[in-house]
């Protein structure tokens, strides 16, 4: 066996050897690093956004240098997140214990009809004085009678609560909750980072940019359900401004959508340009995990395979160009076509 890099798979010592192999990855990091198996998370704190970006870029460069030294190739497009910005304000006193139709007050954060069923955590920032609500529902269609979790952040800016509700009856036996004192957890003038996780019924709310760090309140539900939709709102007449990152599940089923835009070329990153038929172009993109769509010119049989420049996406730029047409990969049947809705 001739190995140029890495360790042999399936061996007795393989797991131990891979830990030795990657252990030096965090040695030169200036941020706080956490490693588990082959996953590494890096966290930073800074007084302003410019300093924070500089610190992150330094550690990304350190990580890149380590990878070059050890012949490791990272795949930054393995996962994609869509950033959603929403403003919320409910002019009423609303929560899961007293509002049967609570889903009607929430703004659905799932842009592009994304399938959220495979997601188990959420990262977001919120600027609000108090009473930020996140709803994790078992319903695809805002049905408040289905089981749901309500995560209430900063109730009157004194408490944070996780509610589990089985239905919309509001009967005493239909809900249970756990709360913690979180005085001044929200700020009217500053965006603050939070995360929520719900894997295997272990529901947690925490602060910061690292999931499972700085837990504020948790709740274990033995009757856990699949989360199919997520909504947010702020109650008690308070304005809330949210920036939310939603992970895109890789559920490509072979369908591309031209977004009804002729003579349009996307300005995403071109990862490969080839001369081929339309069928081969689509097949090449479909077989690639990093390809999110393609530009095709039928007159010239020219194909450009496209990828996102970053794994955090806010929009997909394009421009008019005769003869070209952009096709977006759809990740949930024929609905979650990112190039058509961002």
What structural keywords apply?
3 domains, Jelly Rolls, Hepatocyte Growth Factor, globular, mainly beta, about 350 residues, six-stranded antiparallel β-sheet, single chain
Q: Can you walk through the features of this model?
A:
This protein has 342 residues and is mainly β. It folds into 3 domains: 14-69, no CATH class; 80-248, Jelly Rolls; 256-341, 3-Layer(bba) Sandwich (Hepatocyte Growth Factor), CATH 3.50.4. The protein is 13% helix and 38% strand. The protein contains 4 helices and 21 strands. The chain has helices spanning 14-22, 49-69, 278-286, 338-341, and strands at 32-36, 39-43, 80-88, 107-108, 121-128, 132-137, 148-155, 159-165, 175-181, 192-197, 202-207, 215-220, 229-234, 240-248, 256-257, 262-266, 269-275, 293-297, 302-307, 312-313, 318-329. A 7-stranded mixed sheet has the order 12-11-10-5-14-3-20, with no helix packed on it. A 6-stranded antiparallel sheet has the order 4-13-6-7-8-9, with no helix packed on it. A hairpin with a 4-residue loop joins β10 (192-197) and β11 (202-207). The N and C termini lie far apart (48 Å). The model has no long low-confidence stretch (mean pLDDT 83).
